Amino acid sequence: MKKEEQQKRVCWTPASIEALPRKNRRYYVLDSERIGLRIYVDTSGHKTYHLQRYVAGYGNLRSKLGTYPEMTILQARKLAKEYKALSVLGKDPKLVQEKKKQESKVFGQVVEEFIDRRLTKKDKRTRARIQFMRGWFLGQMRDADFSKFWNANKDRLSIKDKRISEIDEDYLLEYFNCAVQRGKYGCNRVMGTIRMLINWEIRRKKYHGTNPVKIIKGEEFLWSEEEKDHLDFYNTEDMKKIIAAAEKLAKVKNNRVACYGILAALYCGGRPHSEVFNLTWDQIIWDRKVIHYTKTKTGGGNRPITDTMLAHLTRIKKERENKGTASRFYYPVGDARHDYIFPNWMYGLNKMTLRGVRKCKLKHIHEVKLMWKKIKKEAGVENRDLKSLRHTFATYCVTIGIPLRTIQKYLMHKSIKTTEIYAAVSEDAIIIGNEKLTAGFNALIQAA
Q1: Strand runs (DSSP E) across 128-228, as ranges?
Q2: What is the pLDDT of residues 274-303, one digit of tens each?
């Protein structure tokens, strides 16, 4: 698209098209009279008309209209106009063709394509994954016990001949209730894989509907173990231990950025990766006590923050200003990391990736799994994911009596129902609530 914007459009004439030279590569020339219309010239000098247009939900579509000089310039422009009108009405021949492909494709084909294109490694883990997918979705299993179970429930588990458009929530509920007989963990893994495969089709623009596998927070659907993480939280005593452990480990210079980032995730109830670790100083509005986001997982807007979080940021700012100390928080003006609150010391250095040794391009911290593991070990608390700090924040707010509407603002939830899920009632909240109820009843009894 960028090349098209830079390329100059010209008003076609028979003479100008005849004069188009033959090159050692295929190229095109844009028409100024009909946006999207172009003429391609291949290496043999053969010229063809093509129309490229954007259609919502399908992206950029390109269709061949005809060849020059069999089709004149006026005929090509007229046909391009008709195609664009049909695109608006949803009757574009290219759209019809895409819909037919979408309707004819079955889930078994998607599984085979994914295995052929994505699972190309020959390691033990990949082979196990292929065997898992072939067993559940294609009925090609090696385990005799599982084969007996699958054949006994073939009518309910045979998804390979189902078109993706036919897979709806009702069908998935029946599938889930049957598959769960083999164990909840395995069933959750199956449902998560179905969701992943359909998302893969959507990303490739092979399917233009919505993914029917919904992540519903509750007991009815839990497609994967990771989705349960939002139900994990630390109680008040464990919070104290985590804060103390992080402060202790932060005394070591190399640990400081990661420890302070983890504490910030707890103090403001943010998602570590998307809403805390990539914060910049210009996002902090000090006088209004808010963090401004242009875009996050929950959308843009302002998140209110407490004085505790502001004091934490002020401490970091002072350390950044203390240029004489050997602090990884400080980088000189002009450095790409200078504007980030939690800069990445690995930026610009070589690091090992899945594709070999590459220079690190991330300007802020991202993965702090090792440091989080050290903090949990130092604090002596249960092993929970880093995302549990967000739910810990919400649960603590409920424990000390913060209204749900206020918590909703802190967590930037669009719906109060989402806040109700995160703000699970802890044992501490029950004890405090019990004390308040007891005091209330005592007052009523005395007044009676």
Answers
A1: none
A2: 889 999 999 999 999 999 988 766 567 888
